[in-house]
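quick one before i forget lol
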Amino acid sequence: MIPQWKIYPRSQGHSTVYLQNVVTDPSITVGEYTTYDDFVHDPRDFQRNNVLYHYPINQERLVIGKFCSIACGAKFLFNSANHSLGSLSTYPFPIFFEEWGLPVEDIPRAWDNKGDIVVGSDVWIGYEAVILAGVTIGDGAVIGTRAVVTKDVPPYTIVGGVPAKPIRKRFSDDVIERLLELKWWDWPVERIAANLEAIQSGDIEHLA
């Protein structure tokens, strides 16, 4: 377990942080050992700079699993970034309730609510990728540089492009099934450490 005081995983620099220990918003949940790297801004400001249009009125959540790697500039865009497409106009009248004499409680009618953003464990999110509201990213997935993810991503699948589309699976279906059963990221730290050679070399047969 990472001590709450430990923010930087590397002594060589402070561009990378353990997200779990810098996020304070209770509607954002981050698993152990997940990191965010930012060489442009202070990475400790992740929830302000990277989690956008995330307002309490929507009661929406960002859930990120364990051992994820999030690259500089990755953004999570929540529901208030949307404008209602069911209205005759995309203009967000309910936001300007005072100007138009509308009830304040109707503010969420200004946008389409697509739900939470959920990121599994061992996910790599590339440089300046954008994840939209309502998306679930499966364990072990890879999100390419500057991809815009508008739909769910299956486990251990590499996606890229605008909008993001599957490029290939990282492993065979049998290996993916086994990895999802093993869930190595939930193992005790000592067991993970003892299996690092097999994990890094891709040797699933020698995981113990």
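fyi The chain has a mean pLDDT of 96.
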